[in-house]
Amino acid sequence: MAEPLRIALAGLGTVGAGLVRLIETNGSLIERRAGRAVQIVAVSARDRFKDRGVDLTPFAWEDDMTALAGRADVDVVVELVGGADGPALTTARSALKGGKALVTANKAMIAHHGLELAELAERHGVALK
Questions:
Q1: CB proximity list for 121: less than 8 A, separation 6 or greater
Q2: pTM given for the model
Q3: Sign of the CA dihedral 101, 72, 44, 117?
Q4: Contact at 8 Å (CB) between 23 and 30?
């Protein structure tokens, strides 16, 4: 089996916490279908101490979400912060420039900065999804 796909998760709201639950609950099914494990290795959000209804202790915590892109143990940064600019855009740019694939559900950011982000992804040979 291939090496695990290692994810850094920026944003732990409803969608981010849901992703943590989904991977915890369906990890073996995802691994069988994808041919490799998917594991969250690091997380970041505005409030480290907020109760999100999921156990975050297995994951490294980054107070500065842009630091997720610099981690050697991360293959993909998943941005679920929201907003067209600010921390979401800074994190997206950092991930792509750092050679990390980026997955985002942020329609506003893509609408305003999609071309720039696509060019960054292409220049650094990584995926933007």
A1: 96, 101, 102, 127, 128
A2: 0.91
A3: negative
A4: yes
Q: Are 75 and 57 in contact (CB under 8 A)?
A: no
The rounded distance, in Å, linking the Cα atoms of 44 and 115 is 26
With H, G, I as helix, E, B as strand and everything else as coil, classify residue 70. Answer: helix
**Which residue do the tokens 């892109």 mark?**
69
Asked if residues 84 and 55 have their Cβ atoms less than 8 Å apart, the reply is no
Using the predicted structure, report yes or no on whether residue 92 has a pLDDT greater than 80: yes
- Average of per-residue pLDDT across 85-114: 95
Q: Where are the alpha helices (DSSP H) in the chain?
A: 14-34, 86-97, 107-124
Classify the C-alpha dihedral 81-116-110-72 as positive or negative: negative
pLDDT band (50, 70, 90) for residue 1: low
